[in-house]
Amino acid sequence: MSDSLETAAAAAPAPAAPPVQAGAGQSGTVVRSTVIRRLFRNPLGIAAIAILTVIAVLALLAPVLAPFDQNYANIAKTLAAPDSVNILGTDSAGRDVWSRLLFGAQLTLLSALLCAGVAIAIGLPAGLIAGYYAGKFEAASNWVVGILMSLPGLIVLLTIRAAFGPSVWMSMIAFGVLISPSYFRLTRTAVQSVRNELYVDAARVSGLSDLSIIARHIFSVVRAPIIIQTAAIAGVAIAIQSGLEFLGLGDPTKATWGVMLSEGFKNVYLNPTLLFWPALAMALTIGGLVLLGNALRDALEDGEKINHRKKKAAPEGTTAAPAAVRTSRKPMATVVAGTEHHLVKVTNLGVGYPQADGSIKKVVDDVSFHVDRGEILGIVGESGSGKSQTAFSILGLLPDNARIVGGSIQFDGNYTVAPGDERVSQERLSKLRGKRISYIPQEPMSNLDPAFTIGYQLVTPMVRVLGISKAEARKRALKLLTDVGIANSDRTFNAYPHEVSGGMAQRVLIAGAISCEPDLVIADEPTTALDVTVQADVLDLLRELQQRLNIGVILVTHNFGVVADLCDRVAVMQNGRLVEEGSVRDILRNPQEPYTQTLLASMLEGKEPMSTLVSTLQKEPVA
Ligand SMILES: Nc1ncnc2c1ncn2[C@@H]1O[C@H](COP(=O)(O)OP(=O)(O)OP(=O)(O)O)[C@@H](O)[C@H]1O
């Protein structure tokens, strides 16, 4: 029956809004209030809320409104027609039907809530953990879910009844456990769809703990589908509970709607209204829940369409020249380039991916370089040459299946990848990311969580990493936004990502990257996704900030022009290998390797993209 229970749950209003969209459309006070407003504009939403509110109020006020106790029996007045004392008549035991309906509403709604609560308490955290961490927990959870779903639900409920007696609470707890896989699957799928979103990586890089990322960025994505699913599950729980009671398996001492239905059915020829009233109450409640689920879905989908339109129509943002950046930063000793102690030292690094045949395909092979404070190292190469994989190794953002197949990485003298390590140490890196190492990504929009305002996304890491108050962080965020050339910092602070242009979003990410005073910034093609008119501004800004703050920068790019413009030194990569490294001046004047010469020649000829070079050069396989 579990399968059929799931099917029943799925057949009710689907938790249709795609997770990301749902999250996008529904978090934050402003957006939440917009969803509620849209819900109230939908006639179906109003009808559902009105029906459910009336039923909930009647249930709450049952002890006040009911003229008799649910089990008070007047045997002198059985199966009586409605009159002024018993406004809906009496049943075969002389009990007041109106009073029993009211108390029945209380029990029925509470038991449905209990069922949904148990299912959420089990399915939601398990789905969040399995979706976010995957691995062994997900495998074990899938196994448990498989077992739960293969259990014959009706037999389980009958066994529970035999063991614990006819308790509506016990059967609803058991039903909650049986239905919890539906929450697990919904949550896990939603989380999987955003787990690798760039804004989750960005949150990780900004120093947020896994718990904070799950609570803030991941949970917001599943919240809407969970609410919609709960409306459906509550309806199914009422139907299942009433079905069991109708079969005579309920507690006859409790006036639930199912018990009343069973009682009414026995006397259907004598007094059909005994069947009618509980059936009407159930139909209204389940119908109200189904309508509410549909209206919620519509409200969220409308919001998504509006967001999408706004995003399309968003004007290109400010291109105001960067204002002066803050100068209050503590001075840091600059390590002289060439000495042994470097800010970042990558030695013979190799990164690979296991293949189906058991071999490992190397995508970074024997790469060595260093970066010191106050200098910009450009890593340049055509698409697929391993630039990002190298940068992600330093950031600890390699995919789960990536393996370090050789070499080491040191940050300020400490290993983040020690010789012999198979993986980047997340433990060591979590202490550095967001505090000492920050990241400016390629796609500004995908790296901002659509569910939160820009201000919130700037303030949270500062509060956590720098340990300052929210008010202080807000002040700093506004100053940073001004520093990166955003004219109306207040407006941008309160805006959602879809309300700003790509250029502005990149400035916001640069502000975020320097907000916690890092020593190293890794910028992965920071201008690729931007309009050409904004690219030069962003590069100028980066250079100015780097010089003022004396930070080390690793700039990943496929554009030698950007390297020539911005970098002090350059490492040229091809097919996962570092083919040449040196000062920009030397490499530009006197490139030694044919590959570098071709890259340079292509820049001078204005050829783009670099991948067109592939055909002109003979590639050597690296694995
Ligand atoms: N998850 C993965 N599994 C297997 N191979 C991967 C994975 N991610 C990247 N690669 C491979 O690693 C190689 C290097 O990729 P990388 O992203 O570092 O290139 P890149 O030089 O940064 O290129 P681009 O400029 O296009 O981003 C590519 O051949 C790519 O196919």
TrEMBL record:
Family: Belongs to the ABC transporter superfamily.
Intracellular or extracellular location(s): Cell membrane; Membrane
Topology of this chain in the membrane: Multi-pass membrane protein; Peripheral membrane protein
Organism the protein comes from: Arthrobacter humicola
Residues covered by the ABC transmembrane type-1 domain: 105-297
TM regions (residue ranges): 44-66, 107-131, 143-162, 168-186, 226-244, 275-296
Keyword set includes ATP-binding: yes
Protein's name according to its UniProt entry: Dipeptide/oligopeptide/nickel ABC transporter permease/ATP-binding protein
Domain ABC transporter intervals: 344-600
Keywords: ATP-binding, Cell membrane, Membrane, Nucleotide-binding, Transmembrane, Transmembrane helix, Transport
InterPro entries found in the cross-reference section: AAA+_ATPase, ABC_Ni/Peptide_Import, ABC_transporter-like_ATP-bd, ABC_transporter-like_CS, MetI-like, MetI-like_sf, OppC_N, P-loop_NTPase
A Pfam entry, by short name: ABC_tran
Lineage: Bacteria, Bacillati, Actinomycetota, Actinomycetes, Micrococcales
